[in-house]
Amino acid sequence: MADPLYVERDGHRTWLKWHRGRRKASDPVFTGKRIVEAMRLGASVEVDLVVHADHGMAVLHDLTLERETTGTGAIAEARAADLRQLHLRNEAGAPIADTVLLLEDLCALLARQQPHADALLQLDFKQDAAALDPRTIANFAASIGGLAPHMIVSCGDALAVEQLATATPGLRRGYDPCYGASLERLQASGDFARFTADALAIAPEADLIYLHYEIVLEADRSGFDIIAAFQAAGHRVDAWTIRAVTPITVSQVNRLLALKVDQITTDDPEGLAMALTA
């Protein structure tokens, strides 16, 4: 089959983002091989970042090591050299041959082969601005260097995005308003227009807005096209995360495509692409 990069529907292209560097459901997360492959092909791909003890960032999702790696303890207390010795775990919890990547390690891999012009790597920072200091921000910028045009930094904290992007010329900005008090207010009020307006006010420079796909669909059921609202303000929209390919999720994805979402985050891009073209 063709590489799972995007879906064309009614004249609109929707990218299939490789969540945590996975091309298919059986892939372990955050392996250099898959991330490099995605960037070579021109895919949209996402990795997570967490600050470690040496003022750099590890390519991991959790704030602790136990679930994703062979290590233990808080990542904030782990030194870079020790992190590099840890092995990743697969979905069943078994250690695999691949070791933990730091941001600079990943960037060094990507620099060996120029990414495809369409490739976009989302760096999803899993903390907030309180976890950043000048040294960490400087190391982040130095690690990325000339790869910045192929990357976008995202977070649920717009201040963290601003600090990291300002220090890294050419780096795009992304914002996820689906966390914390804003999401709680939306769930309580159902006021999608207010939710949208607040996000636009908080992150006016964001290239991509990341929305939980169920929020997009709930807004649609209430008669509010939240994708069109963000697009009218000059922002693209990513709907996250389709975990598994089932008849229900395929139906939901088809509705997202009808709404002309710009990107769909999925743990199984290959399986989803096959289901949509079957």
From TrEMBL:
UniProt organism field: Devosia litorisediminis
GP-PDE domain: residues covered: 37-270
InterPro entries linked to this entry: GP_PDE_dom, PLC-like_Pdiesterase_TIM-brl
Record GO biological process: lipid metabolic process
Gene3D superfamilies in the record: Phosphatidylinositol (PI) phosphodiesterase (3.20.20.190)
Organismal lineage: Bacteria, Pseudomonadati, Pseudomonadota, Alphaproteobacteria, Hyphomicrobiales
Pfam families tied to this protein: GDPD
UniProt-recorded name of the protein: Glycerophosphodiester phosphodiesterase
An MF annotation (GO) of this entry: phosphoric diester hydrolase activity
